[in-house]
Specification:
Layout lengths: L1 H6 L8 H22 L6 H16 L6 H37 L5 H25 L6 H14 L1 H20 L1 H24 L1
Helix pairs in contact: 2-3, 2-8, 3-4, 3-5, 3-8, 4-5, 5-6, 5-8, 7-8
Length: 199
């Protein structure tokens, strides 16, 4: 798909402003699709992977819609649900850690800080793995390589941290807004991975 993206040209007669608005609208729609696909809670990695593939097709001016998204989701969820369980387990471990810190655990604040930072790093690596997913890819190797890229590409990782912060702030302000913003985070992950490949 990278070659297709590199060769992609704007639609004839379409202004850059129109392209930007069309992509933004596609991100919002993709966010809704991601939220629906992630409702079983353990399917969120597969939902993000399908959303990233959909947005990649959109950027390459390739045909793709709900059916292609659903096909990618079905392929990604076969092993992706295990990554989802691991993510929830990590969140539960950090929550227990933070509760212990709040109850006065000796040396707690540094331990709590490390736990929260590790969780944020794992979330960024998960987004990068989902953006790099393709049918037939192993989630284990995707996550391992994404973890290395998370460390080796701090600028891209901080961009994704900012995207996650926007989702959290949007959810705090208005939950429906956070649903739509999920698509923009998937788009950011696609952009970060593309930028890393071109370095």
């Amino acid at each position: 798909m990278t070659g297709a993206r590199a060769k992609a040209r704007p639609e004839p007669g379409e202004s850059r402003l129109a392209q930007g608005f069309a992509l933004f609208a596609e991100c919002l729609l993709t966010g809704v699709w991601i939220a629906v696909a992630a409702l079983p809670l353990v399917t969120y990695p597969a939902a993000f992977a399908a959303g990233a593939r959909h947005l990649g097709r959109r950027l390459a001016h390739e045909h793709g819609g709900w059916r292609e998204f659903a096909a990618d989701f079905r392929a990604a969820v076969r092993r992706g649900w295990l990554v989802g369980i691991a993510g929830w387990a990590a969140l539960a471990a950090v929550w227990v850690d933070v509760q212990a810190v709040r109850n006065g655990l000796p040396g707690g604040p540094p331990v709590g800080t490390v736990g929260v930072l590790a969780l944020i790093g794992a979330a960024v690596a998960g987004l990068r793995a989902a953006a790099a997913w393709h049918p037939g890819a192993s989630w284990r190797s995707l996550c391992a390589r994404a973890g290395r890229r998370t460390v080796l590409d701090p600028a891209g990782s901080f961009l994704l941290v900012g995207g996650l912060a926007v989702v959290v702030c949007s959810a705090w302000f208005s939950a429906p807004l956070a649903v739509a913003v999920l698509g923009t985070v998937a788009a950011a992950a696609v952009a970060v991975e593309e930028r890393y490949r071109r370095r």
